[in-house]
Known about the structure:
three-stranded parallel beta sheet, single chain, four-stranded antiparallel beta sheet, 2 domains, 12 strands, alpha+beta
Amino acid sequence: LVVSAAGNDGDDDWGRIGTPADADSVLAVGGLDPATGLHVAFSSTGPSADRRLKPDVSAFGIVLTTTPSGYERLEGTSFSAPLVAGLAACARQQQRQAKAMELFRQVRESADLYPYYDYAHGYGRPQASYFTDPKTTPRKATPTFDFIAHDSVVTVVLRPAATVPVARPLPLLTDPEEASPAWLAALDPDASSNPPVLPGSAPATPGGVAPVGKEQPASADNSALPLAAYPPRLYWHLANGQGVLHRYEVRAVAQRAVLQVPRRFLGKGTVLRVSFQGYTGEYAE
Length: 285
């Protein structure tokens, strides 16, 4: 299995992934910012020249390394690719008979956004638990949102249970003046069950998890430290019938009615695909 860095042209005039990462059998790895868990600006984006999905997956592309005089921050997808190559090597040790393209498929499917994808993150960050915990294979996520079609728009509304833990339950809308009563009723017929409309707030950090970007002390028993806690985000894209993306975006979540897409964008086989908290759903007309 060939694993290649996606390249570092994301923030220059070229922008796109090039050879060898754009080859169909090469696992291209984009860069993530460890402080946010999102695509880092310098990481080259897809698609390939023939409109295939690239990068395939992503991993952290910023490191702190020692120097004779202290520490230095270094950046590049050349730091991302070895992380994924190491995971693939461990998976190969577990599955001695696996062929290269089988590992290629499994690493893609192990990523935290799969089956959602975009041209910045690919399928997301590969997870070792996919290979070590049979309960995660295949992934059966509980729905976390609904598509509500009303008049000329489709609205993505998060289910209340999917917004916990947060500082308080998310309101349906942070600004009640931005929607008509009819639209509000279409989004949630049982309006009495909604929490009051309050200004949005950042999600609370779950107990026992240190904030992202803060140095954590080593545990007394050398047990694994908790993973960084990133705030919940909604990923969405519009794709044509061949899977080529027209648009993609990552949104911060401050209210349950988190996204509206005009229905005129959904003709001719276009699919709205959304991912939130491990669940991916689709809407088409």
